[in-house]
Amino acid sequence: MKSRTFLLLSICLLGMAVSALAQTAQSLPAQLAQQQLDAYNKRDINAFLEPYADTVVVYMFPHKLQYKGKETMRNQYAGMFAQTPDLYCTLVNRIVQGNTVIDQESVVFKKGVPPMSAIAIYTIRGDKIVAVHFIAAN
Question: What pLDDT does 2 receive?
Fold first, then answer.
């Protein structure tokens, strides 16, 4: 009886460990997306760029290239961060599927002006965001 209880307990613990590992592996893409979102809202350019690959590519959906490279991204966002003190992005919904994160966002650029609705699709390879596809409402 003791060996059966031990076996059942061991199987239970193993299942919990596997589940925890799977959740950790699945959560890395979400963690990267959240890291850059938090830094965006603080307008901290260095923290914002940290989760991105040096070779990141940014598109308007589906495949209209906006720019390539982290340094170009730095130039794009540093100016916006400096010139837009009311800038704030609220996460409306997040879907994580494998190495892809889809964020539905509401972005305020200036207080008193209705926020812009947007969708950002992040592609992760390894431990970096390698591509972003934006869908912005008109």
Answer: 64
Contacts of 81 (CB under 8 A, 6+ apart): 43, 44, 45, 48, 87
Question: pTM surpassing 0.90?
Answer: no
Boundaries of every domain in the chain: 2-136
Pick the CATH number of 2-136 from 1.10.10.10, 2.60.40.420, 3.10.450.50, 2.160.10.10: 3.10.450.50
Instruction: Report helix, strand or coil for 113.
Output: coil
CA distances from 94 to 42, 88, 102 (A): 20, 17, 6
Is-contact 52 36, C-beta < 8 A? yes
